[in-house]
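FAQ
Q: What does a multi-component entry look like?
A: The components come first, one per line:
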Amino acid sequence: MVLRDDVFYTYEEFPNEIWGIVYYCTEGHYHIGINKNLTIEKQKEVLQHELNHIKNDCTTNNYIIGMDMQYSELETG
Amino acid sequence: MKGGENMEKTFGERLKELRMELDMDQDEFGEIFNKSKSSISSYENNKRVPSLELVKKFAEYFNVTTDYLLGISDVRFSPDEKIKNALINDRELYYFWEETVKREDLKMLFRQTRDLSDEAIRSVVQFMQMIEKEHGGNK
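Then the predicted structure of the entire assembly, as tokens:
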């Protein structure tokens, strides 16, 4: 599904430890993969959160969305 | 070099362990880095501490993380190595990763894969491969 010209999202069968993935492809598009096993509410929450993140941070980094929306960029070292 | 409560091994112990895994004596190992046998011995006995640059070179040589070598962490492999190990039985995915890893923007992904299971790592790389096949330039 397309959210804006350069942002796509799909629901995927990920292991429980992964809530989602944001992947910036070689063609310059953002792809959000959301774990389809999450509740609908949680899926919406993840999607909205990632859209805001892409919109505000303009990140071109790829990252995995883990439990509680944690990101490694918040980690030290 | 001890620096943390949970640390199980010292730098010297790790260095010795890794050297012995390769069946090398201190002389042979020292030669590679232009160091004497006594220097290597003093590192292994925690009597002297090598420069950070040398620690990095040792870690690269043994293909382990510097944290592992320093005894700070028990995570031995670099993220790239961990990912490759998870993909070892899937040739297509493995080659896809080898190409993808050249991208600079994977740094964050690298940090995150440290604690993931092999299954989770495969899921992540499969997702990336699927996207590239459908949308990307690496078709």
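Q: Is there any commentary attached?
A: Sometimes. For this entry: The helical segments of chain A are 40-57.
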